[in-house]
Design goal:
The complex is a heterodimer.
Chain A lengths: L2 E8 L8 H14 L16 E3 L8 E10 L7 H11 L4 E7 L8 E10 L6 H7 L5 E6 L2 E6 L4 E9 L2 E9 L9 H9 L8 E10 L8
Parallel strand pairs in A: 3-10
Antiparallel strand pairs in A: 1-3, 1-4, 2-3, 5-9, 5-10, 6-7, 8-9
Chain B lengths: L29 E4 L1 E2 L9 H5 L4 E2 L2 H15 L3 E5 L9 H12 L5 E3 L7 H11 L6 E6 L3 H7 L5 H13 L4 E8 L6 H20 L10 E8 L16 H14 L5 E5 L2 H11 L5 H10 L13 H10 L4 H5 L20 H12 L7 H10 L21
Parallel strand pairs in B: 1-4, 4-5, 6-7, 7-8, 8-9
Antiparallel strand pairs in B: 2-3
Classes of the chains: A alpha+beta, B alpha/beta.
Chain lengths: 216, 394
């Protein structure tokens, strides 16, 4: 086969490179491993490499997905995993390589882990804030907007671990509605529930749904 | 102080693995140094003098280095660098060797600006491929007379022919680089820049096969000449600030078409460059004063403070024009006289005198160039060891 889906993690120092930089990193790693990517046609050919969802700078991703298309036949997923794994920088781990199943356009949501560091006793307040209308100021190209992010929160749970408050939250992540978890933090800050900058966001999982947008 | 060279250039240290940034930086490519030195002998160019003799690497060496750098970096472009890549003796062979494995891996090859004639045009086609990038020339002077003075061997015919061919092949972008304030320059030479620009624009519109509705994108950049150490012009003073500004204005007003974009550089910055290019250790005082006055980031327009620099010079009791504008005498001990870069003072003086006669250097060079292009690189040494132009360890 020539199309592969790669499950990988982006952590530690590499959370600071942008999504575009991540694309370059993959392309260069493939070059180093001497694996030929298929290129698009036309005047400005670019390599066929598509990510399910982008990661914001500063956010880690534990189970990210990218599809690549190779020029040669005959590569097995195992071989590819070894070759690519050796060529990638250490903070990107190739976890698994397989034949793509569901299309990326069927992605409906994503699970995030937001840890509010050195913060305790706020579980009740956070739970309350996320359970009804939550207005957040969104800055777009045309100016500032107030939006209610509650409809885009699909589920959450709270816990305390080692003195930190952990919020596990599932947010809408489709092409029509995508909520960046940063807005959840902003919403809690605008309500004066969270007061510090000391938090960390890590995407845990990307979820597919069927044509009706129902989570599978 | 005598300069040392590495005679066998295939043995020079070159990294086989290069750092690869995660983010996009400038120079996002493999830099492959193909040769060191230059044989053209342009009289204003310091690099051409101090990196003599010309030494080139064999294509096998370069191919091996390129492969190693590619597998350690994964970069998608290799740039073949040297001072005058057109003079690399086996350029065609090298390009073929590389394309053998770079084509299938979609790795691009790029060459810094090349001289334009039919030999090079073939290579350009091999290298550029589908992407039609711009065409660049550096005539440096607007008239043949002044080009002979500075020994920049490129004729108007060559430029126009090169442009004509490129336009026929669909190129629409042309960049030309010039200097103003060159020794013996007259207003006629300045106006010559605009005239040449007009001729190139005319060539474009003469091309019946050009894309309808697409205009030419022509840029002319004129920087201010700064006399450099270890060149035949090291005794020349820079034009005064007033003269440079007057010439910049004259050029701007001389253009006869709106199709040309004229880029110019702040003459005050060039004047400062001349002070430090021709200065001696006494300038260290001025540097300290400048630092005390909080001067920094001069490279950015918004931070450049000319008045503060003048204040720094005043405090250090230095007259900047003593360094920038004063012509030096052959009998002067120059601030760099204690450094021997392998080229004698008598050679530089002879070149300087020839430039005043608007003459090009004697015959040794053209023969040497032909020898190199034929692939038979040999020692070429003139009388007094003056013309050590290139060197082969074989």
């Amino acid at each position: 086969m020539t199309d592969f889906r790669i499950l990988f993690s982006k952590t530690d120092a590499l959370i600071y490179i942008s999504h575009l930089d991540l694309t370059h990193t993959f392309v260069r790693a493939l070059h180093r491993a001497d694996i030929s990517l298929r290129y698009s046609q036309g005047f400005n050919p670019h390599p066929k490499i598509v990510f399910a969802l982008p990661l914001s700078v500063g956010m880690a991703g534990e189970n990210e997905l990218v599809d690549i298309s190779l020029e040669q036949e005959g590569f097995s997923a195992e071989t590819l995993k070894t070759l690519l794994g050796n060529a990638m920088p250490k903070d990107i781990k190739i976890k698994q390589i397989y034949e793509p199943d569901q299309k990326f356009k069927n992605v409906v949501s994503a699970d995030y882990k937001i840890s509010f560091n050195e913060v305790q006793g706020l579980e009740h307040k956070i739970k309350e804030a996320l359970s009804s209308e939550l207005i957040v100021t969104k800055t777009t190209k045309s100016g500032e907007k107030q939006i209610d992010i509650f409809p885009l929160i699909l589920g959450f749970s709270l816990s305390e671990q080692n003195g930190d408050t952990i919020l596990n939250i599932t947010l809408a992540a489709s092409s029509e509605s995508y909520l960046n978890p940063e807005y959840v933090v902003t919403g809690l800050r605008e309500k004066q529930i969270i007061l510090s900058d000391n938090y960390f966001i890590s995407r845990q999982k990307i979820n597919f749904g069927d044509e009706h947008g129902i989570q599978v | 102080m005598l300069k040392r060279i590495i005679p066998d250039f295939d043995q020079v240290y070159f990294p086989d693995a290069t750092p690869v940034p995660f983010i996009e930086t400038v120079h996002d490519r493999i830099m492959l140094e193909t040769a060191r030195g230059c044989m053209r002998g342009c009289r204003f160019c310091q690099a051409g003098i101090i990196y003599r003799p010309y030494r080139a690497k064999e294509p096998e060496t370069l191919n091996r280095e390129a492969k190693s750098l590619y597998s350690s970096s994964g970069y998608e472009e290799i740039s073949l660098t040297s001072l005058s890549i057109s003079d690399y003796p086996k350029l065609s062979t090298l390009v073929d060797c590389l394309k053998d494995w770079t084509d299938s891996r979609k790795v691009g090859l790029s060459l810094p600006s090349m001289r334009i004639d039919s030999f090079e045009a073939e290579i350009m086609e091999k290298v550029q491929g589908v992407r039609k990038s711009g065409l660049t020339f550096a005539p440096e002077a607007g008239t043949q007379r002044l080009r002979d003075v500075i020994n920049k061997n490129i004729t108007e015919e060559e430029i126009l022919n090169g442009c004509r061919e490129a336009f026929r092949k669909g190129r629409t972008n042309v960049k030309l680089y010039f200097m103003i304030g060159l020794p013996s320059e007259t207003d006629e030479d300045i106006i010559g820049i605009a005239t040449l620009g007009q001729k190139i624009v005319d060539e474009y519109y003469k091309n019946a096969g050009r894309q309808k509705g697409k205009g030419i994108e022509a840029t002319i950049s004129a920087s201010c000449f700064v006399p450099k150490a270890h060149t035949p012009f090291q005794w020349e003073g820079q034009d005064t600030l007033e003269e440079l500004v007057r010439k910049q204005r004259l050029l701007g007003q001389s253009f006869t078409t709106r199709k040309i974009r004229y880029n110019w550089h702040e003459a005050k910055v060039s004047q400062l460059e001349a002070v430090f290019a021709r200065g001696d250790r006494r300038l260290s005082k001025a540097l300290i004063e400048a630092h005390k006055l909080g001067i920094m980031f001069d490279g950015w327009d918004e931070f450049f403070q000319y008045e503060k620099w003048m204040e720094a010079f005043e405090k250090a009791e230095i007259d900047p024009s003593f360094y920038a504008n004063r012509p030096f005498d052959y009998s002067d001990i120059l601030p760099w006289s204690h450094i021997d870069c392998g080229v004698t003072q008598s050679f530089l003086q002879k070149e300087h005198l020839l430039s005043k006669e608007e003459k090009q250097p004697p015959i040794a060079k053209p023969n040497a160039l032909i020898a190199v292009q034929n692939g038979s690189v040999q020692n070429c040494v003139g009388e007094d060891n003056e013309y050590i132009l290139f060197y082969s360890h074989k």
